[in-house]
Design brief:
Elements: H1 2-53
């Protein structure tokens, strides 16, 4: 009986460690996602400003051979 309890406690300890590790990963990824969202918003704002200023991007222009 004691062996079963020890085995269960050992499994619980491993599970707790796994949950803590996963929690750290999720927290780090949440930070990265927030940073990426800020960057995308900044890029969208820049593009909106360019469109408002009437600046055409080279990629949006037709090539000269057309």
């Amino acid at each position: 009986m004691d062996e079963r309890i020890e085995a269960a406690e050992e499994q619980i300890a491993h599970l707790v460690r796994s949950v803590e590790d996963l929690s750290e990963v999720v927290a780090r990824q949440a930070g990265e996602i927030a940073q990426l969202r800020r960057r995308v918003e900044m890029l969208l704002e820049r593009e909106a400003e360019r469109e408002a200023d009437g600046v055409a991007l080279i990629a949006d222009q037709r090539p000269p051979h057309y």
